[in-house]
């Protein structure tokens, strides 16, 4: 930028600054100084203040196998609990957690309380189908509230989810199922993009048919558009049946 170019600063309002987590540059510089002085102690303080631990950590940073550092290695937490339950316990249950606008412009809103209910229902459905802690689950869906429910439900029961972009080919789906050793795939009949309906479940079927996906025992299918798709007996189950138990 040349000296002749003017620099314009747009300061936030006092009201906005007051509600911010870091209220101004002085507070920000103080945080930076704290981290520079003792980065291990800095992150330990934040971890204790802002995260709910099922088993509190006793060691903050393990540097014994550098560069493979480990933070809070002996602590245990649940990500879903921290995203949902913790906010509800703080009195925010009726606050909107997600605002989602679909391809056709329809806007959906869901509160923390409602989201927790849906996540718990789906998590129980996953457990009922034998999916457990440490299992890998591939999520092959378009963006939407159900995708968040699926991810949160996996985290809640300790399953490891791998999100596969809905635009990827059946070969890419097959490769990711194979690489992860996934026991389940969560998908939808179709997705909508740019006013067009794009099949998802058929791509899952094609990918699995390519071979190397013997680990998959369950395919859960959300009826998003009502598009026609083949259901494999003994393997495939509709999303609403998972919720119903």
Overview features:
alpha/beta; 9 helices; two-stranded antiparallel ribbon; 11 strands; 245 residues; five-stranded parallel beta sheet
Description:
By secondary structure, this protein is of the alpha/beta class. It is 41% helix and 18% strand. The protein has helices at 14-19, 25-37, 39-50, 79-92, 112-128, 145-157, 170-180, 201-209, 239-244, and strands spanning 61-62, 70-71, 96-101, 107-111, 136-140, 160-163, 184-188, 190-193, 196-199, 218-222, 236-238. The strands form four sheets. It has a five-stranded parallel sheet, sandwiched between helices. A two-stranded antiparallel sheet has the order 1-2. Helix 5 packs across helix 6. The chain is globular. It starts with 13 loop residues before the first helix and ends with a helix. The mean pLDDT is 92.
């Amino acid at each position: 930028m040349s000296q002749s170019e003017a620099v314009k600063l747009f300061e936030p309002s006092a009201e906005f600054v007051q509600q911010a987590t870091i209220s101004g540059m002085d507070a920000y510089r103080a945080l930076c100084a704290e981290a520079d002085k003792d980065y291990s102690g800095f992150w330990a303080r934040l971890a204790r203040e802002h995260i709910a631990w099922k088993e509190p950590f006793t060691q903050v940073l393990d540097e014994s196998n550098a560069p493979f550092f480990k933070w809070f290695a002996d602590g245990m937490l649940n990500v879903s609990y921290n995203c949902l339950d913790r906010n509800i316990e703080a009195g925010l249950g009726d606050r909107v957690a997600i605002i989602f606008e679909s391809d056709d412009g329809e806007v959906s809103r869901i509160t923390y309380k409602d989201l927790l209910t849906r996540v718990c229902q789906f998590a129980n459905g996953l457990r009922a189908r034998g999916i457990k802690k440490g299992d890998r689950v591939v999520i092959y869906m378009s963006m939407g509230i159900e995708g968040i429910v699926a991810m949160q439900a996996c985290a809640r029961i300790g399953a490891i989810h791998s999100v596969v972009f809905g635009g990827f080919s059946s070969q890419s789906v097959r490769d990711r199922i194979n690489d992860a050793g996934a026991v389940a795939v969560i998908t939808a009949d179709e997705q909508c993009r740019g006013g067009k309906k794009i099949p998802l479940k058929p791509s899952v079927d094609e990918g699995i048919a390519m071979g190397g996906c013997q680990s998959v025992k369950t395919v859960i299918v959300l009826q998003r558009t009502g598009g026609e798709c083949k259901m494999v007996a003994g393997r495939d189950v509709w999303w609403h049946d998972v919720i119903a138990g």
